Amino acid sequence: MAGLDAYDNSLTMVCEELLHPFKREQGKEPQLRDMNLHRLPWPLDELEALGETEVEMRVTLSYFIEPNPSARGVTSRYRYESHGLRFDVKRPWESDDDFRARINVAARDDEERTNLSDTDSAWLIGKNSRHKGSLHSDIWRGSAAALASRGVIAVYPSLGWWKTRPVLERYNQVVRYSLLVSIKAQDIDVDLYTPISSQIDVPIIIE
């Protein structure tokens, strides 16, 4: 389920979705299962026309976890939380296939607890610091033209005790999450809503 909130020179997309973090095949240990890709309905022509004008994109991902039944005294998040979710955004000139491949590598590195350098410096917090707890938020700032080529967001799972404690048989659980993505063009008069109003089939709230 998705909705859009439009106000002056800003847009906000709200999604409520489901995801299966893990799976287990017979005779094997649980593995990571799904990622969801969300295509952002931004007005590409209008953003490209703004060129180097600075815009802001805020992404917020929230979900609930199930605490480890034996969580008393547990300090590692991999042992306390049932699962984690992460988000990432397609980079300029990155194809959808390249984006999926990068997310698969990121999920594997997170599972192996490999802390790689964050090469996307336009984020305020960055991927190595924003994914703590079960409410993740970050702000990207850059040119409108660059934002126009960042039109896909991935939500994917990370390690948790549903995977590491298969004896409890929670690895087939489905999880719900909320994804909020907003864009704002600062200090300029631009209509971001009208160009996409006829292209979307979701409820619109205009304030």
3D architecture notes:
By secondary structure, the protein is α+β, with helices and mostly antiparallel strands. It has one domain (2-200). The chain has helices spanning 44-50, 77-80, 96-111, 127-130, 144-148, 161-164, 194-197; strands spanning 2-7, 10-19, 22-23, 31-32, 36-39, 54-63, 84-89, 135-143, 152-158, 175-185, 204-206. A 6-stranded mixed β-sheet has the order 8-6-10-2-1-11. A hairpin with a 7-residue loop joins strand 3 (22-23) and strand 4. The longest helix is centred in the middle third of the chain and has 16 residues, at 96-111. The model is unreliable at 201-207 (pLDDT under 50).
State the main characteristics.
disordered C terminus, single chain, 207 residues, alpha+beta, 6-stranded mixed β-sheet
Count every beta strand, where a strand is a DSSP E run of 2 or more residues: 11
Element string (H = helix, E = strand): EEEEEHEHEHHEHEHEHE
Task: Give, in spatial order, the strands making up the sheet with the most strands.
Answer: 8-6-10-2-1-11
Helix content: 10-25%
Shape: elongated
By secondary-structure content and strand pairing, the structural class works out as alpha+beta
Major sheet characteristics: 6 strands, mixed
Residues in β-strands, percent? 25-35%
The overall pLDDT, averaged over residues, is 81
Number of domains: 1
Give the CA-CA distance, first to last residue.
21 Å
Please work out how many helical segments DSSP would assign.
Answer: 7
Calculate Rg over CA atoms. Answer: 18 Å
Give start-end ranges of low-pLDDT stretches.
201-207
